[in-house]
Fold these 3 entries.
Entry 1:
Amino acid sequence: MTTALRALAAPCLDTLLDQARAGELGPDPSARRIAVAFTTSQAVRHDGRRGGYRNEVLSLRLGRAVGSCAVEPGALPAGAVESCAGADVAALLGHPLLPVRVAALDAYLMDVTPHTPSHGAQPVTVPAGSSLERSRARAAAVIDLLDVEPGSTVLVVGVVNSLLAELRSRGLAWIPCDLKGGTTEWGEPISTDALAEIGRCDAVLASGMTLGNGTFDPLRRSAQEHGKPLVMFAQTGSAVLPRFLGAGVAAVCAEPYPFFWLDGGPGTVHRYRADDGGTP
């Protein structure tokens, strides 16, 4: 990461929110307003897969940037989206709803430090294809960031079947964990307590959704305490998580809006490593 921004590695999400709200990370957020607020909802059932899933994402548009935070479908209260449109960023950084705070912080940091090589981003193309083909391509880009030997065990927080399939193809075992519980595509039970499982793994692979549900900081601290490298794959908070590189996060695969599942054409994800000399 760049020398100047290495010093900005945040000790926790709340500190980063406070720094942004105080104007310590860029322009005065009280002078910036969100032009557009919207949600994106999807239901997925890929050919050849046993089950499906639903996603919902809150996104806020600030100038050239879009910040996003995934939420449980239907979890946003009535009027939440409408109240964000036209609001100043500082107000939203202090919003009572955590997903709104995360989406506002993501939009603000995306505008201040976009995903460019000058900010340490390594762009990786996700080729055009079906939703399943593109999911697999993104999974390969994410798993490339894991620095573990074949036979190692990865704690996967936020279960994505394409990621599990990619781990298997590389001779890696996994411990699936998700607050929803249930089973994986292959019938494996999914734990709901990542902190209870972290001692049994060699590395942790976690979704940016942990930012929006309040589990990111406890997970990051636990990974540090156990000496486990933490790799994040992020549609939620893609511009937020690189700020934690070198502070408990080893690498980030950042995927800003529009996400791979919205379009059949080529797209880009942006990879960051704590030890490669670059971060936004």
Entry 2:
Amino acid sequence: MPKNILVIGGTRYFGKLLVQRLLRLGHSVTIATRGYAPDPFGDRITRIRVDRRNEHAMRNAFRDLSFDIVFDQMCYSPLDAAISVRVFAGKVGRYVMTSTIDAYRELAPRDAAFVETDLPVLAQRIDTAYPWHDPARAIECYVSGKIQAEAYLERDGSLPLATVRLAHVLGGPEDFTGRLAHYVDLVRLRATMPYANAAAKVSFMEAQEAADFLLWTGMQDFRGPVNAACDGALSSFDLHARVAAVLDETPRAAQVAAAAPGVLSPFDFATPLALDTSRAKALGYRFGHTKDWLDDVIRHHDLAFV
């Protein structure tokens, strides 16, 4: 049965892929956006131009609207979460917040993959006085903002919440992060990659599957956090070696005991940051493997190398 769905932040990367899937399935889709980024959906969707961080504007925009599902791609802080509660409580059937693997970076290091209950969300301190919306602090507060947003929504309890902790997403023509491109550039320039720990594996997923998993989560009825990652975690050392193999180059890497910020490559951590996806699998989802898509994604980035 077609559903009435709101996507907050559906104009780029896997948010756009999610909207494409919803339309293909015949759902009625509204996207909430500040209107700065164009989208390809024409008159197939309804657009609401609104600043997600402006509570007055959000209240006015959604005063008389309700939705079967809300996919919130833009909840970055407890202030954003509080706005969601005050705007959408009692008016949505399911609320899916996109969170991140990086939420586990705040925990003590371990070799085992992280399960959802390793992060004690309800015990997290919520700091509403912090200047979360200061653009100059967007990078430094990203992880703590996501954790506290989760904590606020869980503690409040008035939204029917599922929180998707996505692995690091790679691939797609709109990968604006530049993280995989960093490795392609290193290999093509025949530069040496400094790395911290060749065994510190990290979980990844491809942009298409990120959209697939969000869609699947929206159509389920479970609550709480769920990890999402492809099988086949890789360390930065592994990723660099795979890029070199695909591009028929010799990998050049050197281990360093310590490095100043900005020296090491993306995804290079001193300890593993992998996700245990047993919960999603027990609920019926089957993930792909990094070997199924990584080589194609590397080749795509190589085409953009200058």
Entry 3:
Amino acid sequence: MKLSIPGRASATAVVAAAALLTGGSIAGAAPAPEAVAAAAPDIPVANVKAHLAQLQSIATANGGNRAHGRAGYKASLDYVKAKLDAAGFTTTVQQFTSGGRTGYNLIADWPGGDTGRVVMAGSHLDSVTAGPGINDNGSGSAAVLETALAVARSSYQPTKHLRFAWWGAEELGMVGSRYYVNSLTTANRSKISGYLNFDMIGSPNPGYFVYDDDPAIEKTFKTYFTGIGVATEIETEGDGRSDHAPFKNAGIPVGGLFSGADYIKTSAQAAKWGGTAGKAFDACYHSSCDTSSNINDTALNRNADALAYAVWDLSA
């Protein structure tokens, strides 16, 4: 997540049809909250962490970071692209320049669905130069990747068209995502029914924050967390600081999740979510210690499952 002012999100929701995706239903039974949450595919946190381990290895082999214009960023993009290509996605690498260095966005389209109604999920893949960026934003990038791979494993055929994205140079001011949005024609912008953003979703002292820009997308995420008995709060720390901002500024509905950066967890939040009051949600934010040990597995697991829930629900 980029330093500076805050960022939020939203889009459009539908909360049904997911039972069809699991191939069954519970006849005559009122769905319990657990049944609602279970309607989305489970995203194995072990798989997400395996991607994070690869991103850590890439950073370690490339000067300790995965920053824009550095070898670690391109190696990270190549890793994600290879997984998507093997799974049957149509991938596109979009090139841009920032600060005299070449940057890259990766766009992955799942074949099928109504291309006049596109649901996008994305995350920034770059780190700061100070460290490997495993929570910021390996966590979002790995969860979006594993959700895309879950789409392929299930041979999901959504009504809407699914598109996933990994952005470059977010840490320099959402450069990659802004370049993508600005490159779209007015007609193609209007085809995006919602963009979901995932930037820092495995913070070690986590909170559960939901963007509140679009009421329908916000409701979708809140429905998931209510179903698993986890309270949420409206996201305010990241307003304007992540890749949903260019989409929102272009009039596209946006939404997303966040587990906290350098703001301090209050006593009330610690009572609600656990963790340590009086300490940052992520004390390693933008630091060299943002490594593979800087992840809360429970938060990563819950947020990855919420991501998949929203993707399935909004594209059904």
